[in-house]
């Protein structure tokens, strides 16, 4: 079940809200837990057992860590934390990376690992990272051990962010799981954020994504230089509106249920460096790796060689987290090299450039990265990137490029404007009186238009659904 579906919008979520708020306060977490598991098991009932196993293991481990710390047995507490991390990573490795590694070994003649053909449990990358933070936070003293299995289960399975984030740390949500407030203003704000996210996904990402799918499926002999760049530009906008739209919907639904999640995107395409881009893109993932991997490895409080090593490890892991394919690892290492270069010397030069040049530098490198990210087949990736950099068999441009540019130009312009904070700045200048009139009209119009698209169209992909 995906958020951008008629089933979810007009049946599942309204029922969740109704039952949740009609239930006594002390039962609301239990009610949410049931609905969370129904949501997760809608498409893959068997993997509910995997999620329940993860919940029980990390819940018990958190209690053990808390007990050992209270007894002054720091060594035992560290072993308990390590055990939880190993179990979680082992499950993630088995379901997400086993077949990838088995296939890679088989390609070079090593056949000792059989390919199992297992389906990837939806959202396993997200909820595995979330559960691993719990024993670590308890060990560090950043959170108290959760005594209620129901409350901990609610945290792990919280459906608004279960399959696409943002990645939540236990210490950030512990108090809200135990006790949360509700107000009409908070609920209304949640509706607003949700509808904006839905519009990003349905009206922008889905429509722009069809242009990328066209160029992605195009034979290399038909690619032109201009067409290849047009296609990857479309993908850049699609993946942004797709993922940030889902994150906005998660934040909005969380508010409607009384939770406050941190924002996951902050207009990344206005960045003036790659370092800044990653402060604005998928903020919760960057924060997770920084706090639980980069800083424990020494962060930037080390020598230059170790700093480079730490960054390459973090960015290699960031890449492979996105998918079991070599292109994702290459994508992560690509950003690792760029960020190392900026930290060591490049950023000092870039800061002296005019602002426009800084933006162009960043957008150019980000667009190249999306070509790596979006094409899992290495042969296709190489051919596509050759086309981008002048080696297109179709030449500089052709009639097909002109046709697609004319057809999608209005959508690309809208996407470009919507990916920048211009609309927000203009909105903030509205008077409160005008806002009270305009906002409900825009939200209703957006909801109606999105619904019409969903009813009429069968094209409704979700890029991060497989991560």
Commentary on this structure:
The protein has 467 residues and is mainly alpha-helical. The chain folds into 2 domains: 175 residues, no CATH class; 282 residues, no CATH class. Helix content is 73%, strand content 0%. The protein has 19 helices and no strands. The mean pLDDT is 90.
Name the shape in a single word: globular
**Approximately what portion of the residues adopt beta-strand conformation?**
under 5%
Largest sheet: none
The H/E string reads HHHHHHHHHHHHHHHHHHH
User: Can you tell me the number of structural domains?
Assistant: 2
Helix run count: 19
Radius of gyration: 23 Å
Poorly predicted runs are none
How far do the termini sit from each other? 15 Å
Helix amount, in percent? over 70%
- Annotation, overall tally of beta strands: 0
Question: What is the averaged pLDDT score?
Answer: 90
Class by alpha and beta content = mainly alpha
GO molecular function: acyltransferase activity
Subcellular location: Cell membrane
Keywords: Acyltransferase, Cell membrane, Membrane, Transferase, Transmembrane, Transmembrane helix
Enzyme class: transferase
Tell me the layout of helices and strands.
Elements: H1 6-22, H2 28-41, H3 48-70, H4 74-107, H5 124-140, H6 149-157, H7 159-162, H8 170-178, H9 184-216, H10 225-256, H11 274-280, H12 283-294, H13 304-321, H14 326-350, H15 355-374, H16 378-391, H17 399-418, H18 422-428, H19 432-456
Helix pairs in contact: 1-2, 2-6, 3-4, 3-5, 3-6, 4-5, 6-8, 9-10, 9-17, 9-19, 10-15, 10-16, 10-17, 12-13, 13-14, 14-15
């Amino acid at each position: 079940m995906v958020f951008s579906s008629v089933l979810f919008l007009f049946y599942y979520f309204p029922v969740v809200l109704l039952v949740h708020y009609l239930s006594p306060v002390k039962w609301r977490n239990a009610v949410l837990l049931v609905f969370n598991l129904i949501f997760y098991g809608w498409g893959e009932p068997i993997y509910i057992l995997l999620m329940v196993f993860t919940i029980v293991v990390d819940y018990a481990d958190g209690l053990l860590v808390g007990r050992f710390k209270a007894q002054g047995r720091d060594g035992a507490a560290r072993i308990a934390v390590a055990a939880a991390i190993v179990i979680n990573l082992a499950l993630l490795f088995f379901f997400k990376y086993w077949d990838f590694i088995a296939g890679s070994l088989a390609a070079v003649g090593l056949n000792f690992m059989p390919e199992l053909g297992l389906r990837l449990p939806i959202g396993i990358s997200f909820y595995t990272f979330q559960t691993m933070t719990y024993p670590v936070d308890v060990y560090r003293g950043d959170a108290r051990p959760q005594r209620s299995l129901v409350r901990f289960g609610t945290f792990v399975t919280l459906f608004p962010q279960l399959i696409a984030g943002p990645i939540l740390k236990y210490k950030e949500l512990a108090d809200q799981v135990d006790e949360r407030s509700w107000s009409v203003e908070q609920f209304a704000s949640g509706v607003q954020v949700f509808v904006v996210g839905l519009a990003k996904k349905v009206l922008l990402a889905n429509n722009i994504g069809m242009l990328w799918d066209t160029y992605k499926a195009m034979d290399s002999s038909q690619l032109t230089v201009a067409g290849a760049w047009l296609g990857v530009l479309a993908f850049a906008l699609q993946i942004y509106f797709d993922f940030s739209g889902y994150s906005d919907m998660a934040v909005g639904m969380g508010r409607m249920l009384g939770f406050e999640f941190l924002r996951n995107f902050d207009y990344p395409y206005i960045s003036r460096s790659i370092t800044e881009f990653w402060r604005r893109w998928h903020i919760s993932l960057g924060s997770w790796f920084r706090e639980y991997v980069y800083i424990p490895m020494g962060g930037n409080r080390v020598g230059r060689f170790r700093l480079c090593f730490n960054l390459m490890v973090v960015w290699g892991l960031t890449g492979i987290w996105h998918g079991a394919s070599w292109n994702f690892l290459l994508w992560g290492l690509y950003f690792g090299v760029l960020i190392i270069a900026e930290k060591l010397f490049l950023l000092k030069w870039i800061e002296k450039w005019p602002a426009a040049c800084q933006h162009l530098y960043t957008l150019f490198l980000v667009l190249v990265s999306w070509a790596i990210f979006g094409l899992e087949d290495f042969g296709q990736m190489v051919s596509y990137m050759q086309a981008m950099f002048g080696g297109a068999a179709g030449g500089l441009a052709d009639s097909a490029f002109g046709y697609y540019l004319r057809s999608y130009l209005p959508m690309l312009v809208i996407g470009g404007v919507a990916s920048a904070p211009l609309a927000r700045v203009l909105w903030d200048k509205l008077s409160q009186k005008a806002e009270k009139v305009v906002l409900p009209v825009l939200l209703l119009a957006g909801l109606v238009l999105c619904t019409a698209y969903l009813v009429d169209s069968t094209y409704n992909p979700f890029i991060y659904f497989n991560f």
